[in-house]
Structures are given as structure tokens and as C-alpha cells.
Amino acid sequence: MFPDCIGAFVAEMDFGVPPVVQDVVRRAADDGALGYLPLHERHAARAACAGWLASTVGWDVPADRVHLLPDVLSVMRETIRHFTAPGSAVIVPTPAYMPFLTVVPAAGREVVEVPSLLDDDGRYTLDLAGIDAAFAAGAGLLVLCNPWNPVGRVLTREELLAVAEVVDRHGGRVFSDEIHAPILLDDLPHVPYASLDERTAGHTVTAVAASKGWNVPGLKCGQMVLSNDADAEAFAPYAADVSDTVGLLGARAATAVYTDDGGWLAEVVDYLRGNRDLLAELVAEHLPGAVLSRTEGTYIAWLDCRGLGLEGSAASFFRREAGVALTDGISCGEAGAGFVRIVMATPRPILRRAVEQMGAALTAARSAS
């Protein structure tokens, strides 16, 4: 999209894919096996996902409660369609993953943006009072993203329990996007929201995927996890049709990495920790006045550029003057105005060059003013 720029706006990694994924794709091509997804392989992918959830985050989910869909947004659409009242509004805490704000109106629903609370260190917390008010006004579904794209938070058990109190009080539902769960940079556990207690299991639809952790978004195999009998029964008539939208290679890749990725993810996460720490150093050196939120999970950084003295969009400035393409924070909701989203999953020399170019452009602009 921006061939003359260093790209840091698409949420994928510049580290290739695990060898087990390469083997899956190569073997399928060599065998000429690129047809539809057989039923037994569909079951294998569902079982592998359930096994990974149990072994990694301690959430025991029956494999038949896992359904294959192309991606997290597909799960979100199915959640809105099947598990919310017709016409009910959808609550999106912001800053948010950009498509959350477009998928909802495309489904014929109103988006209720609830700006999250931000402290002086760039740390975000959910505005529970704002969420409560949105439910009280008639909204039916809360969109939760944990780990939180774009601000990098890993929500604690206590925070999630506080959310559950609000949702339960209003008889609401939750769509929980947890596709960044494999990427934890601090010593913090990922707590699946639906795993907290019977209340959350009863009102949640969860989305997980191998796409972010193992860098395979193009293979299109996400997972919808249902956590109660009523939802499982309600969705059963539609399960086969939605699973038919998933490709063979995506299901095989998910099965492979959920089962044994050969240590690839652990190495990548360790490298990402180094990138996170380097980025903090580079921002302090080259972008004085900017505030970088600490990324606890995901490979996404969130930078407050309001203190840089720029006129207009910071993302436009850095793309035009520094040759670095970032996501404009305004696309993450009104609360993102003046911020940029940086995908930091790139080799460190490139990350360093990007921030140095941003700093040089800022210095030049200040000298010219």
C-alpha cells in the first residue's frame, strides 16, 4: 500500500512461519491435496485447539464446543447474528481493533464507543461506569479484546471479574476476542474471560486462533469457543455451514501449531520482548514528548503523539515526512485521536531505522517552525 515506506501498520509478523506450518503446506502441495476440509481433519483441528486451551491457559473446553470459522471477525458476526437481540446496540471500549467499529454497523447495529481510562503513564483500564451506562441504555453485547489490541494490556482476573459484574447485572452478552493470547510479553497469565465462573461461561462467545501467535492469518482458520449448553444447542444448526468456510491448509496448520510448534512461539515471544524494550528506549531518545504505553501482550505498540506539537494526523505526518506507515489512532475510535498504532514484530534494525526516521522528521519539522 505504501511501497516507499517502512510498513508498521498491518498486524502480522516479519518472522516467517514455524517449520511445522511450512511442512503442512509443502506436503499438501506435493500430494496434490488441496481440496475441501475432510470431516476428520475438522475434528482434529477442534480437538487440537481444545487441547491447547487446556494445556496453556488451563481452560477445559470440550472439543465439540469449538467451531471453525475463517477469522475473529467471522466469529464476531456470528455472535451478533445468533446471540444478541435484533437491533440491540454493541458496546466497543476504545481504543479498539479497527474493524470492530465497522463490522457492527455492517451488521445493522449501532456502535456505542466507550472511551477507556488513561493514566499519565499510558496505561489503560476499562471504564466500567461507561460500560454500565451503555448496557442500561439498551445495549446487548460488550466487545472485549484481551490481550487488548491496540493498547497492549493483558487484563487481570480482578479486572475481568469486575466486567462480569456489570454484564451480569444487565443480562448482557460478551464477545471476547482472545486471538493474541499466545503473545504474552510480561509475566502475566492469560485468563479466558469465559473461564472465570458460571456467569461468564453463560454469557460469552470467545474467539481464538493460531493466526497471530504463529503468523498464519492468511490461512483463515479461527475458532469460536462456546462455553454453555444453551449456546451450543442454539448454534448447532449452523455449525456445519460455517465450518465449510474454512480451508484445508488453515485447519492443518492450526492442528500442527496447537499440538507442537517445536518451540517456535517461545523464541518469537522472547524476541518480541526485546523489541518492546528497544522501542521504549528509541521513543525516549528520538521522540521526546511522546508517551508509549507498555505492551504487556500482543506485538502492537500504542504511542501518544499529542505532546509532539504536530498539526493534524501524526500518522499522516510520519508517513509523509519520515517514510514510516503507521495506523492512525482515530481509526481505533474517537479516543485514539492523536495516537498511532505501531506493529513492532519486525527485525530490530528495521524497528530502529523506523523510529530514527520518525525522530529525524520531527526534529526537522520543529527546526522549520
Automatic annotation (TrEMBL):
Name the top EC class: lyase
Q: Which cofactor does it need?
A: pyridoxal 5'-phosphate
Q: Which domain of life is it from?
A: Bacteria
Report the EC code(s) recorded for this entry.
4.4.1.13
Q: Which molecular function term from Gene Ontology is one that the record holds? A: transaminase activity
What CDD domains does the annotation carry? AAT_like (cd00609)
Keywords from UniProt, A to Z, are:
Aminotransferase, Lyase, Pyridoxal phosphate, Transferase
One Pfam family cited in the UniProt record for this chain: Aminotran_1_2
SUPFAM superfamilies assigned to the protein according to its UniProt record, in alphabetical order: PLP-dependent transferases (SSF53383)
Record-annotated Aminotransferase class I/classII large domain positions: 13-356
Keyword DNA repair found: no
Q: Which family does it belong to?
A: Belongs to the class-II pyridoxal-phosphate-dependent aminotransferase family. MalY/PatB cystathionine beta-lyase subfamily.
Q: What is the protein name stated in its UniProt record? A: cysteine-S-conjugate beta-lyase
The organism of origin for this protein: Georgenia subflava
Q: Taxonomic lineage per UniProt?
A: Bacteria, Bacillati, Actinomycetota, Actinomycetes, Micrococcales
